[in-house]
Amino acid sequence: MNFKSIRKTAILVILFFLPVVFLLFLYPSKHNYNTLEIIKGDILETSAFTTEDGETIGLENNLTVLGFFGSNPMDKATAALNLKELIYDKFKGFKRFQILILVPNGSEAQVKLLKQELLKYDVLKYWHFAYGDQQEIVNVFNSLKTREGLDKNFGTDHVFIIDKERNQRGRLDDRTEREIEKEKPVYGLSSYDCIEVSEIKNKMSEDMRILFTEYRQKRKGTFDSSTRRAEDLKPQDDEQN
Fold first, then answer.
1. Count of domains in the chain?
2. Single pTM value for the model
3. Which domain holds residue 70?
């Protein structure tokens, strides 16, 4: 074999293996996701609240998006519509998924108006409004970890992810890669602002998919608490009703 043949063979080998090596380095950093972390445990159960039909909607054994719309729920119409379009419409029908909005007693008329607005687009089969007294709302809210507060009407634009064991889920470290490189102080993400479309569309939607993946893999016995791959974040048929 002459020098030209050897060089040609070497070049072909390098051209073949270089992309493979590159992908091996790229794969772990680009396509793995951490599990959705537990921010706080033992979130207060919502047994003190009932729907208009007298039904109690609990947190236990459900994957819940929990919200507080206050005594004037129509003030939260923008937040509600964003939540419906970007979260509810994507995850409705997944096993044990629900959106639960707690509102004070006496806000029934406002809730009816908001429902009419939401019902223009879909039936709210997995979306519940539950009523209770103001102190009970404060009690549930205070059991959550958040830097936000309720407004004077006992409402907020922020919503919370609660798992089946009544743990509040989120991100203990929500820094960007650039912020980590610059060693910026650690900050978390314990609630999601429904007015901020990018936060709901990108962060919350991703976090919900990761959480559903965790429970699906637990059922299958394939749960890995260390990483999540991008393909695992796609909705699966066995998650549907």
1. 1
2. 0.78
3. 33-239
Structural domain includes residue 16: no
- Give the CA angle between residues 235, 236, 240 to the nearest 5°: 95
Q: Please enumerate in sequence order all residues whose Cβ is within 8 A of that of 28, keeping only pairs 6 or more positions apart, or say none.
A: none
22 domain residue, yes or no = no
Beta-carbon contacts of 95 under 8 Å, excluding residues fewer than 6 positions away, are: 239, 240, 241
- Give whole-number Cα distances, 91 to 10, 38, 236, in Å: 51, 21, 11
What are 168's strand-pairing partners? 40, 162
Q: What is the largest CA-CA distance in the chain?
A: 91
Q: What are phi and psi of 128, to 5 degrees?
A: -125, 140
- For the stretch 80-115, pLDDT in tens is 999 999 999 999 988 899 999 999 999 999 999 999
DSSP-based three-state secondary structure for 152: coil
Q: Is residue 204 part of a domain?
A: yes
CATH of the domain at 82: 3.40.30.10
Establish how many alpha carbons lie within 13 A of residue 183's alpha carbon, considering only the half-sphere containing its beta carbon. Answer: 0
State pLDDT tens for residues 184-218: 999 999 999 999 999 999 999 999 999 999 988 88
Q: Could you give the CA distance from residue 10 to residue 76 in angstroms, rounded to a whole number?
A: 65
* 4 belongs to a structural domain: no
